[in-house]
């Protein structure tokens, strides 16, 4: 039983969750993961004032805190693992103030070295009510859901407002740097801890790894920790620290 709890906590650290080592999802497979009509209407209406709710819970708008940072909230579009817009009108990214301050440090370090680059943020805080929508909408038995998405009863670091998903934008071209896979791609080519193997198998290139290194260097320099299965995900705190310092964001 204990083992199962630890297993679930481990999974909850990731944005959605690290997947079975063997799995690589195709677009078609992803489409089938989410039930039609996943978000009932009353849930959708409760999302209308997410920003006000975040501010009441002490979170900050990172674009107001961090000069020049770029935000493209993927969960406010259908361009994500679930192929669902679960943020409604929300287009701004919120974090705990301390995590936003760390991110400001990373952005500053990036721009000092590469004035033409900026951090490009895909996701920050994800409130528990959205986590619940993802959980309820996932077309899998409850016992298998933790393989795909953090259990809202436990909460992951995005649910505390201390995890961030991001890439790097080239301000000259207006395009994100090539990191080898898109955001929310699940499979070995996205795994930082499989890069040597993926290079050997020619699934990713040295240039793509070099781009990831730029991101990792500034994020780690600012105090963030990466995870082994997603090049885009960084945590400002451990799950234990987050649970002690912060409340789950509703
Ligand atoms: Zn994430």
Q: Can you walk through the features of this model?
A:
With 250 residues, the protein is an alpha+beta fold. It has a single domain, classed as 2-Layer Sandwich (Muramoyl-pentapeptide Carboxypeptidase, domain 2), CATH 3.30.1380. Helices cover 37% and strands 11% of the residues. The protein has eleven helices and eight strands. Strands 2, 4, 5, 6, 7 and 8 form a six-stranded mixed β-sheet that branches. The chain has a two-stranded antiparallel sheet with strand order 1-3. Strand 5 (163-170) and strand 6 (175-176) form a beta hairpin. Helix 6 packs across helix 10 (206-221). It is globular and about 40 Å long. Zinc ion (ZN) binds next to strand 5.
What is shown here, in short?
The chain has 250 residues and is α+β, with helices and mostly antiparallel strands.
Descriptive key words:
single chain; 250 residues; alpha+beta; Muramoyl-pentapeptide Carboxypeptidase, domain 2; six-stranded mixed β-sheet; two-stranded antiparallel ribbon; 11 helices; globular; disordered N terminus; binds zinc ion
Provide the helix percentage: 25-40%
Distance between the termini: 28 Å
Percent range for β-strand residues: 5-15%
CATH architectural grouping: 2-Layer Sandwich
The count of strands amounts to 8
| CATH class assignment | Alpha Beta
Number of domains: 1
Bound small-molecule species: zinc ion
């Amino acid at each position: 039983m204990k083992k199962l709890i630890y297993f679930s906590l481990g999974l909850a650290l990731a944005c959605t969750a690290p997947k079975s080592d063997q799995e690589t999802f195709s677009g078609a497979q992803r489409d089938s993961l989410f039930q039609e009509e996943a978000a009932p209407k009353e849930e959708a209406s409760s999302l209308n004032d997410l920003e006000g709710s975040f501010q009441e819970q002490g979170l900050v708008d990172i674009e107001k805190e961090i000069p020049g940072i770029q935000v493209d909230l993927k969960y406010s579009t259908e361009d994500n693992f679930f192929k669902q817009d679960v943020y409604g009108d929300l287009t701004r990214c919120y974090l705990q103030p301390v995590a936003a301050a760390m991110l400001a440090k990373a952005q500053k370090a990036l721009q000092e070295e590469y004035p033409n680059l900026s951090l490009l943020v895909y996701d920050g805080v994800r409130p528990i009510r959205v986590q619940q929508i993802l959980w309820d909408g996932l077309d899998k038995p409850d016992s298998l859901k933790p393989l795909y998405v953090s259990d809202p009863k436990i909460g992951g670091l995005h649910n505390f407002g201390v995890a961030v998903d991001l890439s790097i934008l080239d301000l000259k071209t207006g395009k994100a740097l090539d990191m080898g896979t898109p955001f929310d791609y699940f499979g070995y080519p996205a795994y930082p801890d499989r890069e040597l193997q993926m290079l050997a198998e020619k699934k990713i290139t040295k240039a793509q790894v070099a781009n990831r290194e730029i991101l990792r260097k500034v994020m780690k320099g600012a105090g963030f920790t990466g995870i082994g299965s997603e090049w885009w995900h960084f945590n400002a705190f451990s799950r234990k620290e987050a649970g002690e310092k912060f409340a789950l964001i509703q």
